[in-house]
Design goal:
By secondary structure, this protein is an alpha/beta fold. The chain is built from 15 helices and 13 strands. It folds into two domains: 6-178 and 362-373, Glycogen Phosphorylase B (Rossmann fold), CATH 3.40.50.2000; 189-351, Rossmann fold. It has helices spanning 15-30, 53-58, 76-97, 109-120, 139-149, 158-166, 180-187, 193-200, 223-234, 253-266, 278-287, 297-300, 332-342, 345-351, 363-373; strands at residues 6-12, 34-41, 65-67, 101-105, 125-128, 152-155, 174-176, 207-212, 240-245, 270-273, 290-293, 308-312, 325-328. β1, α1 and β2 (34-41) form a beta-alpha-beta unit. The longest helix has 22 residues, at 76-97.
Length: 391
């Protein structure tokens, strides 16, 4: 008699998010209790962003459906149109796949589309990395909205668990499992310095920095100005190898693409990659002196390597931070001072003591154990959980 497997549908829309989900996806696929369904969307299907769906296929994972949200522009109107296309596309995908549970991670507009469609189709949602705060990005509102669409919550820190509960979610369905990025670091085998240089086609210098700067989506037309200040600071580092990764597909992202490409053409000590993939990205982090920009990875994962992060501006404002994080204003002078701090003897000594607030691994196993122990039936109806009255 065949064993009935519950169908878990995982949605992925970006290279970085897939890197976080990768080991969970494989655990679901290898489970005797679950049938994996995978939907690829967003930048995975975009030539501009490197057709990163190929990285999923290279991992031996079958993509069951694709939802093309037509990332043809980066204005607010373009993003709104892509969000609407996503709602329609995911509705059609769910009708075909008929999943028992949808798993989403984070706070991007394509994940909002996936969540709205699942809610309308009465499919329960498991949300990963909710409860976090990023005051400088529209991701903030999207993340908390997805929390309210979802029935199960897997968060990265006890403070974030409390925030999800504060939003009215059931404590019995809200689990602190730690960060998926930290878990991935513990699981993967990093490339050696020589392997990395061969794969990426450059040679590390005595000093090396990895740069990822995303659009600042809640500030009016400041992304290009902030990038200009960052590049001005970096232009003074002729003795340093500068390794850029391209920004997310957010409002104003394309002007940042152009600015980075122009900088790399004019500075022989720099190089740029549309997508490094998780193994090469983490391998780079392990070799460089620090990470510069405003990416969440600088806060969530880089501290586990005992490496410095220069966190520029307000995009990540509100997130928990390790002592290895150097916050600075988005000006060339402030960025330059922060980079100098990386190399100061006092700061280098403190790096050895840095602890990552997002745990020390084990998130995938905790999520799998919880999913295996839980019935998905009856999850769709939920009560608003009121906090006890304060005395």
């Amino acid at each position: 008699m065949p064993i009935f497997k519950r169908k878990i549908c995982v949605v992925t829309g970006t290279r970085a998010e897939y890197g976080l989900l990768r080991h969970l996806i494989k655990a679901i696929d290898n489970s005797s209790e679950f049938e994996l369904q995978l939907i690829a969307t967003g930048t995975h299907l975009s030539e501009l962003f490197g057709y990163t769906y190929k990285e999923i296929e290279a991992d031996g994972i079958t993509i069951d459906c694709t939802v093309d949200i037509e990332l043809v522009g980066d204005t607010s109107r373009d993003i709104a149109r892509s969000t609407a296309l996503g709602i329609t596309g995911f509705s059609e995908a769910y009708e075909k796949l008929k999943p028992d549970l949808v798993v989403v991670l984070g706070d991007r507009f394509e994940i909002l589309s996936a969540s709205v469609s699942a809610m309308l189709a009465r499919i329960p949602i498991a949300h990963l990395h909710g409860g976090e705060v990023t005051e400088g990005a529209m991701d903030e509102g999207i993340r908390h909205s997805i929390t309210k669409f979802s029935q199960l919550h897997f968060v990265a820190n006890e403070e974030y668990r409390n925030r999800v509960i504060q939003l009215g979610e059931d404590p019995k369905h809200t689990f602190n499992v730690g960060g998926l990025g930290v878990d991935a670091i513990r699981r993967i085998k990093l490339l050696t310095r020589n392997q990395l240089e061969h794969d990426l086609g450059f040679t590390f210098k005595k000093r090396n920095l990895l740069i990822t700067f995303h659009p600042v989506t809640l500030e009016d037309s400041t992304s290009s100005q902030q990038m200009k200040e960052l590049l001005s600071a970096l232009s003074k580092l002729s003795d340093t190898q500068l390794i850029f990764t391209m920004p997310n597909a957010d409002t104003d992202s394309r002007i940042l693409f152009t600015m980075i490409e122009d900088f790399v053409r004019s500075n022989a000590n720099s190089c740029v990659f549309t997508s490094l993939g998780q193994v090469r990205y983490f391998s780079c982090v392990s070799e460089v002196d620090g990470v510069i920009g405003n990416s969440s990875s600088g806060l969530l994962e880089v501290p586990s390597f005992k490496k410095a992060t220069v966190n520029i501006g307000d995009r990540q404002k509100g997130r928990l931070k390790a002592s290895s994080i150097i916050d600075c204003e988005p000006s060339a002078a402030e960025i330059g001072l922060a980079i100098n701090t990386i190399y100061s003897p006092d700061f280098q000594r403190t790096l050895k003591l840095a602890e990552n607030p997002y745990g020390d691994g084990g998130a995938v196993d905790k999520i799998m154990d919880t999913l295996k122990s839980m019935s998905f039936k009856g999850l769709i109806k939920k009560k608003f959980y009121d906090l006890p009255p304060q005395s």
